[in-house]
Sequence to fold (1550 residues):
Amino acid sequence: MSARTTVMDGNEAAAHVAYRTSEVIAIYPITPASPMGELADLWSSRNLKNVWGTTPRIVEMQAEGGAAGAVHGALQAGSLTTTFTASQGLLLMIPNMYKISGELTGAVFHIAARSIASQALSIFGDHSDVMAARATGWGMLFASSVQEAMDMALISHSASLASRIPFLHVFDGFRTSHELKKIEVIPDSVIRDMMPEGPVRAHRERGMNPERPVIRGTAQNPDVFFQTRESVNPRYEACPHTVISAMEQLGALTGRTYRPFEYTGHPEAERVIVLMGSGVDTAREAVAHLQTGGERVGVLNVRLFRPFAIDLFLGALPSSVRSIAVLDRTKEPGSAGEPLYQDVVTALAERAMQPSASNERVAMPTVIGGRYGLSSKEFTPAMVRSVLNELGTDNPRRSFTVGINDDVSHRSLPVDTSFTTEHPETRRAVFWGLGSDGTVGANKNTIKIIGEHTDFHAQGYFVYDSKKAGARTISHLRFGPEPIRSAYLIKEADFVAVHQFNFLESVDTLALAAPGATLLLNSPHAPDATWQHLPPQVQRQILDHQLRVFVIDAYALARELRLGVRINTIMQTAFFMLSDILPTDEAISYVQDFIRSTYGKRGEPVVRQNLAAVDSALDNVHELVVPGEVYSDRTVRPPVPADAPEFVRRVTAEMIAGRGDDLPVSAFPDDGTWPSGTTRFEKRNIALEVPEWEPDLCIQCGKCVMVCPHSVIRANVVPEEALANAPDGYKSLPASWRGMEDSRYTLEISTMDCTGCQLCVGVCPARDKSNSSRKALNMAPNAGKSSADWEFFRSLEPFKRTVGATGDGAMRLPFVKAKDVQLLEPLFEFPSACAGCGETPYLKLLTQLFGDHMVVANATGCSSIYGGNLPTTPWAHNRAGRGPAWNNSLFEDNAEFGLGMRLSLDKQEEYARELVEHMRGMLGDDLATSLLESDQTNDALREEQRARIDELRERLETIDDPMARDLLAVSRALARHSVWIVGGDGWAYDIGFGGLDHVLASGRNVNVIVLDTEVYSNTGGQASKATALGAVAKFAAGGKPTPKKDLGMMAIGYGYVYVAQVAMGANDNQVIKAIQEAEAFNGPSLIIAYSPCIAHGIDMSKALDQQKSAVESGYWPLYRYDPRLENEGKVPFQLDCKPPSIDLKQYIHTENRYRMLLSTRPDAAATFVDEAQKQVNARWHRLEKMAARPERTITGKPGKPGKPGKPGKLPPSTPNR
Amino acid sequence: MKINTQYLGLELSSPLVPSASPLSDNVDDIVAMEDHGAGAVVLYSLFEEQIEEESRTLSHYLDHGSESYAESLSYFPDPAGIQSIPERYLEHIGRAKTRVDIPVIASLNGSTPGGWLQYARRIEEAGADALELNLYDIPTNTGITAAQVEERYLAVVRLVREEINIPVAVKISPFFTATAHFAQELCRCGASGIVLFNRFYQPDIDIERLDVVPRVHLSTSEEARLPIRWLAILYGRIPADLALTTGVHTVEDVVRGVMAGASVTMMASELLARGIGRIEEMNDALRAWLDEHGYDSLAQMCGSMSQIHVYDPSAFERANYMKTVSGWRGQRA
Fold:
């Protein structure tokens, strides 16, 4: 059977088989498994058939728990069913997994194994998720490479049906799931042959059917449960042999033969490493190298971890082995050892305890267990050697770690990083790029070109940033005549490309260059002027390593070709010119073919553009004449300023600089607690253009401050004398607030933190009366220097919430308008969100209003990532050290998490009040009464209570009494706290809806804000129930066939929940009003905030206009529902926008998410839009009625109507074009 | 009473032709046009910008934000099987042709000779009976002369003419220094019909927000007067059929247009406002009007009030201006 070779990643490899062997697939997004579900949905939308000739039915569920339930149901009804997941998702499936295995049902879950959130969330790979599921009775088959991800997937499906034991097919998240590798694709005919006809038919026949009814899912009592639980044993005993049969069958059909346990290495090895997953190939590479030096070492690859076949394991182990190191890619704190270690020890101990045929007991080898590679930590041949060396010592360390420096419990092994084992003929290339420049995409193409047009093996692995805006990418590519087993990053590259010239100043890009390597620079400078612009360190590296340097001004070429910042094709062409992997002409012709096939479906103009890019690159690569000496006036910026706090300098700075791997265990907090407000120290300087303020035009409206997603624009009003020491040219103007005319208004922009999104310029309403193109804010080239003006601005006293003289006569701003709110210091700054993010302005606003007394429960998602992804985090504190206390629990439980906070704070307050009452005598009546009866409804009153609490604490410190110590511990609960529950639509509409509903129903005083992007943004734009009818999203590749869920109306149904729907771009003051009302409402509040997202496919600089259009079309009506009004005899529902004035089409057809369907399914798109328009019209009429309803008061009198817009005609169709 | 006419060598049962508008987005509506007696249909326009920019825009947004962050390496499903706007347009022509017997006239809207013109051939291949070329741009460059603008338009017509065999009508704007000469040149380059005039959407100025905003207004009968003058002037002077396409709302507008020299009178605003059924009403009204006024056929009337046929040809020229102005003064006095 001749197999087709192609380049794909582990997710696609597994999904290829899963799709073809299934009839029903339940999906839910979770990194790094999401692409498997996306592919399944895409293939199904294109009607791709499984091996039985029918299109699998795909269903997206509301959570992994739901997916497991749906899978269980589909299996029980007789379908071949699968799902894909990882990490927390797998944990949510566990209850159903027990049921599925208990019912002996063949099924496979494909797992891109990922860390479980503990002290922190991590999206990267290890085995902690699958290890948590090892007691479920599922088989577990581990793949250690992309090829194996396909092969083990098929073996799992085949063996599972034959054995009736469900299987987890496991491969390592990212390292395998996202690694691109040239593999042999299993043909459909082989898959069909591997799916056993009898067991498949039997599976279907076991399906629940009223024609032959049976009962499953009974409840059993002590009399029989135990026995029935034991009844499955023969199945588990037989299962490994079923797996062997499937492996042998695959071997016969494809030539690739596997065993449940596979040993490689010296036939008489004394020291052996046992491990599973992607580390296996690295270990094999190292062992092969050591063997050539005569060392008697080996590796045992555990493919079949469950059922653990002790005999097979022992049979695979060389009898010569004296010591074994078992490597687990997981940690079980407090255990006797990690799972694989425990199984290995058990197996060996059982053998040692049982006499052999000759009645001699086999000696127990030394066994040590260790941990490696947690959260995709690098695992290299040097680490393998380190472990083997440890095995050779007299008293090897137990429960060791490798790959980190553990200076706390001293369990880590030393590693000689100079040890390398790479094949000499393997070519290695590293590319530094920006996410937006297309570098990764180009490299993926390059791997495909080389992998699919030559006999070379090819591998690509990509390292991404923890930031979403201005994200840095590093591509690691290997090519060579021999199979590539190196499942680790490149340490020495023959070719280094730096696609962003400014990286040379901030990262050590050339550290990976091998001596004599080729360096390709995308330089904005002329070839003969480039050298002088290189930092001296870089010049030194070039000279020391004798690098050949080539330059190309890719951005200039891209501009000429109207490619914007996409330099991918240009740089790819340059790579092929300079690397001699293929003759240039041949390589270029492949690149051109690739352009035609990849871009062809996007249209001829895009193809022409990219073909022109190839030609222009060919003409513009120049070799740099390297001078023999270092000369440069450039300096390298330190990762953080010298005056940053000690922890930031010692730890955070190292992480920013990319040296986090080198930090020892002792550097870190042991409980996941990190300082807040650290983004301010990480000056990334990623914007090409930044806003510039023109005070002469400014009307001090505050809109720019309000919409800035990164809190980069700040405003303040200060006394004139405060500006006495301002830098020369510092801009300010008289404040335009009544009562503050003598003060100065000042607005500053932190250009080093700006992403250049332009929302501020877009929203600025102030134009030059003689030249309307000039606004009070205009974009200007970024000088790239930290501004003395900004530093001075930050040194100014923050605006005091109470303005005026003193006492009761103080003038207080109401803070219900953007103009006032702009003056409040944000305690959420410089998040790592995308440029133009629609979510972050809402969060910033919350912190301006309530930041010094708010507690935040944040659902997992974009907001928890830009809010809490290290190295630096945006939730900040003020000068007094107060600021939002922030935490992220899970994706699914955030409402409950926030409710728990509320309950705790309320309980502490109650207890504190009881103690104050008890201690009234000791504290004094005045203090006790004022503490207990304080009004804390505004900032000034809250300050007064804080002062009283400080006084209380002082007194308590002097009282030697247990009650005093108790009160001291809970005294701060006497201050009012605002609990905010923050999350996206994936949480609120789907996975967390049950909890959200319950928390809203609880009546407790919590505030919920839903940042509604209408998709799972963080995992790449999968549809949620917030996705609109007809919008294209992942998991809804054919357009979402059902309308958006109306979460607001569901909450309004309770009658006692404050509900508002807002859109900052449409009405900023309504947003502020809603948030203030929600906070003031003594009960549950829900704010649904329209949040534009790059997953909408829009120009993010125009995101505010999209919000306006959403409101003007009636798609996103603005409203507030305030239950308090009901008691006042008023209509509680208030519409805050006018009737629709534009067609829905005018709004949605400016967004790629809707336009895509016009291109793929125009008829469906037209039907959807008609239906959606009808729904918009109908809803508007409903809302009008709600707002205008003549309300009957308690006394029977009609109440005041709300504020509907003019009821009237809906817009006609768009005329003419 | 027969109201049939000939346009671009095509036999039409009525001079009433829906002009390029969203009304022809839907094939069912095109069928309705035929059912209600339209003589032909001009399909909505395929724009040069759509051909060139749509794919770039789509490509941009598919790539935007991708391959940057490990959790979200893309934001949209891979759009295989995509049908670009031009391809959809071609398919639309084909589908319309299978459903109706009236001539289907495709419309290409652009201004520069370029790659987009290849679609003229593909439009012909898709089955269109004729092509209306809508030549439109605003020459804001002070370095470009009127002659250069005209030459560019003529080049477009020549290129299209070389590509295809179906008749080509050219829809022009009223803003030419020598409209008559230019119309004649268009005929020399191969135009079989001249459509008068393209009706521009004039941008508006928002005086509060200091912004330029698009405003769409439907036409009125009053607006027909400008094209009618030029129909009257061109009729019989150039070897092309003429079409009136602005301000046709009533049967009187149709009659005026045909009298001035139009073979067909095209409508959009009226149909958008009152529905496709309006065609039938106007056909009936036209027959009644012709009957009432003793005409044998529509053809008898065509061009009867053109400049070459009217008693006072100067009525369409500057002299008319003088008369109008003095008349106005007289009224004021």
Q: What stands out?
A: Chain A touches chain B through 72 residues (CB under 8 Å).
